[in-house]
What does this fold into?
Amino acid sequence: MLKMNFNLKKNNKMKNLCVFFGTLSSILFVTGISADETCQSPYMAKIVGQEDYVYVWTLGQQGVGDEQDKLVTIGANPASPLYGKVINSLSVGGRNEAHHSGFTDDRQYLWAGGLDTNRIFIFDVHTDPSKPTLSKTITDFVATSGGVVGPHTTYALPGRMMITGLSNNTDHSGRTALVEYTNDGKYIATHWMPTDNALRGAVKAGEFADGYGYDIRVLPRRNLMLTSSFTGWSNYMMDFGKMLKDPEAMKRFGNTVVQWNLHTRQPKKVFDVPGAPLEIRCAWDPNHNYCFTTTALTSKIWLIYEDEKGEWQAKAVADVGEPAKIPLPVDISIQSNDKMLWVNTFMDGTTRAFDISDPFNPKQVYEKQIGKQINMVSSSWDGKRLYYTTSLLANWDKKGKDNDQFLKLYHWDGKQLTEQFKIDFTKAKLGRPHQMRFGANSLYSGRSQPTSSSIALNTQN
It folds into this structure.
């Protein structure tokens, strides 16, 4: 197993990576993002029928439109005359490095973070789902949390929002924490990631306890919370070319997944998952005690699973593309029936489908190039509709003709993807489309607008 310490003099894998990127100066490094209905919190109602809207958290781009970050609402119901069209665009002021967003457990509010300014924007999406409004902005995240920087995943727990940080305000490295709020935006607690110097009761399963953060997912019936790791502010806000030439910067990437006690917020075990594990997706079947993640730098699918003794383990179970070509896995999406995992790779703009019927032996069964670059994938609950967006980070998107900035919808018939519509965000002067969330009129009583959407409450608790 490759030890990802990012020592460029000793690590041939990273030498190859730097050489590869050095020949492609027009493109930039990658981070993956979560975005689909099947990745939502198990405490939340799910749209299991036709979604009416897609909310796109969008990075402002200098020289494009009003240059501000914004929440863009797209019509997604084919029965509506607004299908495939921009319905609303709500700018939030300035460029904050718009990144992740997530609903509260009652699904009435959408929290969205900025990785640079550390602002958290809370949108009201229930009063009028077609036209969200900005309800509140949290501006003191760093001070209140005790120095956490880079609010990333905003994830619903009962009456709570758990936010993963990417960095800290002391050294701007990847050392960070989880920050817990109430649904109405009141700070509760900060839970620091375990490190070698402060394991906080956790046990190291391997070499690393780096204290880095990225994504979060839970299996309430197993009292399980998992977090993954990426890199800190000093890297994700750095010019990509400069970062590649900085050996110290290339060492500052996460190599861990942490198992937590969900109810006590106590870290229990730190797994070695080398190569920057990004999104975590957990199985939905109540008899399936496992989750998946992928590593951006080593192009692996990892399985985090409960063994026969009731202990959680981590194992690399498949390659994504050809790792030697550095395809760079980013966002992933698991089907609600636990049969398939979609994996996007940024470098070749390709989405791949893996049969995960046997989670220990994923098999690629399909692939399709979506664009010159690709990041996010959002799947409907029935697995028949897949939405894709392209932006990574403002300083890391590709340049020139390869700088695709679009939202695309595809239909999946079990054999192939067929494009339904595309919105070019650059031509529409909207900016860089990043993360997607779904909305539906029928989520809220008293709505007069007709909809074919149906809602189900997942009872996994």
